[in-house]
Each structure stands twice: as C-alpha cells, then as structure tokens.
Design brief:
Blueprint: E1 9-14, E2 17-25, E3 29-33, E4 54-58, H1 75-89, E5 94-99, H2 101-112, E6 117-123, H3 143-149, H4 160-164, H5 169-186, H6 196-200, E7 207-212, H7 220-229, E8 233-238, H8 245-248, H9 250-262
Helix pairs in contact: 1-2
C-alpha cells in the first residue's frame, strides 16, 4: 500500500500541536474527516467536491503527520481537538463530512455544537452499536483480512493496485502507528459511544447518511440507526458496496453526496 501524498499538504498548529492538513478547491468550506486507514485512493481535495467547495482534510491526532496531545484518549477528545482546529482555521457555515471513525468524530462534534454547521454527512461510520448485528473485529486480524473486510468486491475498486502495492519501511511504520492509535481511541467500548444515541436527536442540521449495503465491518443497521437518531437525516445505501463507498463505488458516492450538498441552502 502506498500512502497518498499530495502537493496541497501543509501544517497548522492547534493547541501547540502540529496538524497535517490537505486543502484544495474553492467555494464554501467543507471539512473531511478520514477513517482509521486514512484517505486511501479517494482524495477529497482534488475530486468533484473540490469543484464546489474549499475542502479541508486534516489528519487526526496520532495519525500520519499529526502529533497526539498527552490528554487525548477518546474519540470525544478528538472531537474537541477538531473543533479547536475549525476555530484555528476560521471556518464558519461549513459542511462536515466523516468516514468510519471520522464519521463518529463528526457526529460527536455535531452533538456538541451545530450552530456553524451547514450540513453533515456520515459515511459507513463507527459510533453507534447495532441492536441485532455486530461490529466486526478489525484490530486482532491480519492486514490481509482487514483489507478484505473493507470492500465487497475488490475487483470493482479503481486503482486497487495502489492499495496492495508493497509498503516502504516508513509507510509500514506509519500504518502501524495508525493502528495503535485506533486501538487507543476505540478499543473500549469497542468502536462506539453508548451515550451518543441520546445526543444525536438534538442535531437538527440537514444530514445525509451514506452506507455501503454490504459493509462487513459496520452493518447497514448502523446507518439506519444514524438516520433515525439524527433529527433531520436521510439514508442513502449503495448496493454491491462495502465499507468504503467513496473508493469502491466513487461515481455513485459522488452523485449521492453532490446531490445532497446542492440541496443545502
């Protein structure tokens, strides 16, 4: 796997800590929060979103080039840190988008304070625990098993060879550190916050929940829960698609998110 490096990377300081930031496009602000394995083959700062928005895509504390504050131990902590980032960047009336743990962070941020949010997009995200199904174990499995869990059909993933390319020693060390940070943040309770469902009803910001119908990590039941719990949300499922619709079905994903964003006032 080759980690995506782009020319639009910079560093911003938040509460004394350096945050790696990608930025691209023009227009109203959109903040994209990545999942536990980063951006993969989908760069939100150069794709269709960047044609309509100024896209900010930071690396979370403890991931890639962003340092971790000593006090940061939970996803709720990351949400507070990211709110400080938003303030540092001077972003107002912005769209908040998150995938996987990034969607969980986005949901926590929206529950804390929604007055500056123009729209919210949750993509195949952690954060809520299904009633009938289960969240799949992803920490205590091999890299190959985790890779297979991410997609319903790898053959339909554009540029899949970039994901399976041999890693350099530096890349391997970064990915190992990412997994270590994921475990620190999400191990217990496992990939959810038992209190979050009680806060989401107060979020009245227009929201779109996008879910791969065959997500093998977070079942579509979790997407249905998010859509029901949020105060003003619509669910869009993508068939024949796993945990990473922006990578596995980019055309359908882009059409869904752009349609929603075009409808925001």
């Amino acid at each position: 796997m080759t980690l995506m490096k782009t020319a639009n990377q910079s560093t911003v300081t938040v509460s004394g800590h350096d945050v790696e930031l990608r930025k691209g496009g023009s227009g109203p602000a959109l903040l994209w929060l990545h999942g536990g394995e980063g951006f993969g083959t989908y760069d939100p700062t150069t794709g269709p979103l960047a044609e309509k928005f100024t896209v900010y895509a930071p690396s979370h504390p403890g991931f890639f080039g962003t340092s971790r504050p000593d006090w940061l131990y939970t996803i709720n902590d990351v949400a507070h840190f990211t709110k400080d980032l938003v303030q540092e960047l001077g972003i107002e009336d912005y769209v908040l988008v998150g995938h996987s743990i990034g969607g969980w962070i986005a949901a926590e941020m929206a529950a804390m304070d929604q007055h500056s949010l123009k729209g919210l997009v949750i993509i195949d995200s952690a954060g809520v625990r299904p009633v009938n199904g289960e969240i799949t174990e992803v920490f205590m499995v091999s890299d190959d098993a985790r890779l297979k869990l991410g997609f319903h059909n790898a053959e339909q993933v554009p540029n899949f060879d970039q994901i399976t390319a041999e890693r350099s020693s530096e890349e391997a060390a970064i990915l190992h550190a990412n997994k270590e940070m994921m475990s620190r943040l999400c191990w217990r309770p496992y990939l959810h916050n038992p209190s979050l469902p009680y806060f989401l009803g107060g979020v009245k910001t227009p929201a779109l929940v996008i879910w791969g119908k065959q997500d093998a990590i977070f079942p579509v039941e979790c997407g249905e829960m998010y859509a029901k719990l949020l105060g003003n949300a619509t669910l869009k499922t993508i068939d024949n698609c796993g945990h990473k619709p922006q990578m596995e079905k980019p055309d359908e994903f882009n059409a869904a998110i752009i349609s929603f964003l075009d409808g925001l006032k």
